[in-house]
């Protein structure tokens, strides 16, 4: 199929449409064969929280946002729709869209930020065994992961659960709307905790232990596979030609790695968006036996990645901005924080506003300011937030290094990585130089890259990355004087959680 498609279009100028279904908005990009963005757009949608601890979204609003964003992308560009060679979709991971026999959603999608399934996380460990689950899935389970969410639905909403005919991950619902085909890819499926990560397929052992029917889960394939064509109905809504090839795509984290060129060992990415990740590509599916990190399938065939993840990176600074009722812009916070010396004059921040994953895997962990005095103001708090997030990323980085990851080059991206002050803090805390990515939207670029490989424009992901990953030569080097301050402060930071973890759990129980 690839060869014949290429032969038909060998004289055309090809473009690749990437779609990234994020947590708060969808982003779209149209890349040409040299990696130039010919059109970009985004469209937002809300997170619905019907009760404390829940996080849901209306999948219909996702699709409406996709339609608007694609139309805006086409309008912004001067590209003829017929010159779009392929589409690929990436998106938020772990959550679930539940379809009935009419292939309509049964209620809202339950997304990764939902933490109602604490009891089900414990149940999964009880049924399978923590170490055995780690051996199969190469990762700990957490609230918001599809495995725990399905068990919660079965126990608490059995009528809704019994209507489930198919279960899709968020981006796979969008691809279903594009093609009428049910399917997923291994990079997204491996993050459900229902997957055998080493063999790259659904785990019969886990499904049987959890008493889940295998037929409700979609067939899997590699991210670069063409898995369908744009239907007449979808084409009419989007303004694109029917029959345009649609490639499987992947989870937003592995596609972000592709968009940053992190596709082989030696390159490590430090990404700071709403959350934060430290990620390294792997040739073998090594994992942390203490289950402090996640090992999932990469969007690159026959590759994996290991990742430390924090839940409140940029969200921490957004929280502080909300606390001040929007008095400061992010640029103003940057300026205020830049005027405060390293260490924030003794003020530390624990960025566990939504609980934490690496290294604690504790949904009940809580955020905290430690060391407040009357002397400290908004600038101190802004810098302490940035430093606390950097310390959390260092905990992830240190674990990966201890597990044998050898960083030869470290790239940084995400919206937070565009802040010069925050980026310098991260370089100083890690004690490494950071290569700054040209674009904060690496995930949607990664989607366009796998689309190009899927239709044979490049022989593999590595060759596509050489041409399509945005180039940027800016480097942030660590300041040794600042790094020395942070080495001392980091020791204090690491003591805050173990000193207060019992109290955090008491508070969580008190609040129900």
Biggest sheet details: 7 strands, mixed
What is the number of E strands? 23
Using the alpha-carbon principal axes, give the shape: globular
Amount of beta strand: 15-25%
Question: What's this model, at a glance?
Answer:
Helix content is 39%, strand content 20%.
Key words describing this protein structure:
single chain, 512 residues, alpha+beta, Nucleotidyltransferase, domain 5, seven-stranded mixed β-sheet, 20% strand, disordered N terminus
Can you describe this structure?
The chain has 18 helices and 23 strands. It is α+β, with helices and mostly antiparallel strands and 512 residues long. Strands 17-18-16-15-21-22-23 form a seven-stranded mixed beta sheet. The protein has a six-stranded mixed beta sheet with strand order 3-2-1-5-14-13. Strands 4-7 form a two-stranded antiparallel ribbon. The model is unreliable at 1-11 (pLDDT under 50).
List the helices and strands and how they pair.
Layout: H1 2-8, E1 15-21, E2 25-32, E3 37-44, E4 56-57, H2 59-76, E5 84-91, E6 97-99, E7 109-110, H3 118-128, H4 130-137, H5 146-156, H6 158-161, E8 166-168, H7 170-179, E9 184-185, H8 186-189, E10 195-196, E11 201-202, H9 204-209, E12 220-221, E13 226-229, H10 232-238, E14 245-251, H11 252-259, E15 267-272, E16 276-282, E17 294-297, E18 304-310, H12 314-323, H13 330-338, E19 348-350, E20 368-370, H14 378-402, E21 409-413, H15 420-430, E22 434-436, H16 442-454, H17 461-468, E23 475-476, H18 480-510
Parallel strand pairs: 1-5, 5-14, 9-12, 15-21, 21-22
Antiparallel strand pairs: 1-2, 2-3, 4-7, 6-8, 10-11, 13-14, 15-16, 16-18, 17-18, 19-20, 22-23
Helix pairs in contact: 2-7, 3-4, 3-5, 11-16, 12-14, 13-14, 14-15, 15-18, 16-17
């Amino acid at each position: 199929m690839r060869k014949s498609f290429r032969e038909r279009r060998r004289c055309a100028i090809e473009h690749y449409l990437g779609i990234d279904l994020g947590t708060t908005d969808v982003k779209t990009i149209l890349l040409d064969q040299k990696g130039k963005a010919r059109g970009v757009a985004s469209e937002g949608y809300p997170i619905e929280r019907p009760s404390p601890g829940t996080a849901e979204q209306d999948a219909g609003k996702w699709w409406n946002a996709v339609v608007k964003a694609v139309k805006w992308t086409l309008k912004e560009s001067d590209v003829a729709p017929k010159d779009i060679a392929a589409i690929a979709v990436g998106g938020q991971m772990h959550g679930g869209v539940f379809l009935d026999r009419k292939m309509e959603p049964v209620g809202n999608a339950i997304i990764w930020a939902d933490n109602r399934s604490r009891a089900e996380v414990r149940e999964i460990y009880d049924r399978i065994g923590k170490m055995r689950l780690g051996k199969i899935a190469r990762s700990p389970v957490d609230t918001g992961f599809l495995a725990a969410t399905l068990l919660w639905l079965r126990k608490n909403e059995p009528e809704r659960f019994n209507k489930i005919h198919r279960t899709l991950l968020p981006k796979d619902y969008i691809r279903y709307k594009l093609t009428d085909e049910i399917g997923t890819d291994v990079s997204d499926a491996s993050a459900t905790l229902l997957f055998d990560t080493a063999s790259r397929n659904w785990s019969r052992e886990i499904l049987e232990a959890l008493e889940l029917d295998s037929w409700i889960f979609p067939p899997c394939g590699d991210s670069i596979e063409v898995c369908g064509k744009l239907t007449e109905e979808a084409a009419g809504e989007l303004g694109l030609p029917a029959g345009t090839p649609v490639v499987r795509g992947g989870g937003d984290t592995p596609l972000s790695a592709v968009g940053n060129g992190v596709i082989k060992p030696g390159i490590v990415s430090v990404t700071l968006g709403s959350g934060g990740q430290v990620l390294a590509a792997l040739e073998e599916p090594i994992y942390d036996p203490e289950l402090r990190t996640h090992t999932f399938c990469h969007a690159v065939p026959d590759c994996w990645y290991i990742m430390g993840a924090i839940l409140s990176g940029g969200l921490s600074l957004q929280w502080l901005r909300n606390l001040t009722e929007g008095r400061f812009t992010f640029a103003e916070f940057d300026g205020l924080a830049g005027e405060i010396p390293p260490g924030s004059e003794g003020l530390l921040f624990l960025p566990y506003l939504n609980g934490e994953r690496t290294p604690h895997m504790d949904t009940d962990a809580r955020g905290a300011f430690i060391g407040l005095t009357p002397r400290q103001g908004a600038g101190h708090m802004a810098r302490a937030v940035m430093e606390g997030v950097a310390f959390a990323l260092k905990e992830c980085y240190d674990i990966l290094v201890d597990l044998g990851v050898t960083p030869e080059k470290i790239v940084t991206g995400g919206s937070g990585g565009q802040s010069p002050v925050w980026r310098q803090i991260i370089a100083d805390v890690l004690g490494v130089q950071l290569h700054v990515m040209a674009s904060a939207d690496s995930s949607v670029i990664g989607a366009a890259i796998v689309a190009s490989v899927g239709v044979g424009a490049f022989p593999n992901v590595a060759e596509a990355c050489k041409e399509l990953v945005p180039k940027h030569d800016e480097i942030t080097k660590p300041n040794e004087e600042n790094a020395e301050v942070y080495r001392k402060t980091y020791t204090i930071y690491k003591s805050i959680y173990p000193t207060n973890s019992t109290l955090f759990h008491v508070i969580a129980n008190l609040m129900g």
